[in-house]
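Why do we care about 3D structure at all? Because function follows from shape, and shape follows, mostly, from sequence. That is the central idea of this module. The next example makes it concrete: a single protein chain, its amino acid sequence, and then its structure expressed as tokens.
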Amino acid sequence: MELQYMGTGAAEGIPATFCTCRVCREAAGRGGREIRTRSQALLDGKILFDFPPDAYAHYLAYRFDLPAIEHVLVTHSHMDHFFPQEFELRSKGFVPTPLPLLHIYGNDKVEQALLAALPQRDEERHRLRFHRLRPFERIDAGGYAVTPLLAKHDPTEQCLFYLVEQGDRALLYAHDTGIFPAETWDYLDSAKPRLGLVSLDCTTAAFKDGNNHMGLPDVVQVRERLLKMGLAGETTVFTLNHFSHNGGLNHRELSEKAQGMGFAAAWDGFIATC
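And the structure:
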């Protein structure tokens, strides 16, 4: 499996649009890996995790085959993870050439956001179909076994993150979430996937959270538990993603701290494999 991180920022991005904090000033001045767009990742060139307002910018930057994508796994309805207005541009008035059917997977709030954005949605016209997910019920998405897991994030929404398996390879993509809820730990303990790649939320960076997001103290705790449960091992790749300027660390500082704790801190364009 190959996971390309196209956007690694939280809702504000880095530098945040209206912010003058040290992290944002340095990012604006240095550019490169200090710049973070809104969170999105691509698995094996086939499956997208989330569809933020920056999806078009990611398409231009990384030249993946966006028109051919058939599966989008949405974590939750927050704007920085799901911007459904973009899908109006799949209609025949904008795209004269035939498109494959796009399958969008998510919770009820994601479906409501899609309906609000496309009140006249038509499967044939827009070439998309929505699939309502239930936590812990496995589905097939393009030959990958996908299990939505409960996140600990927005208490008004059943936020999800994903376990994706293909053959003997397994990926855990855990954004946006605090330390996993008990139901998710119980499922992982019973399913016992052998995780080759674990991508963890680290929005608060230097600071502990654990309730809505995670910081470095929290991801260490999750990593240790996964190792203790035998779900991860010496060959498991642990990466961090979804960073906010409010975490107080620029990319260089964050990368150094993360490496010392057994993690790779992703940047826009970073590729992880398992």
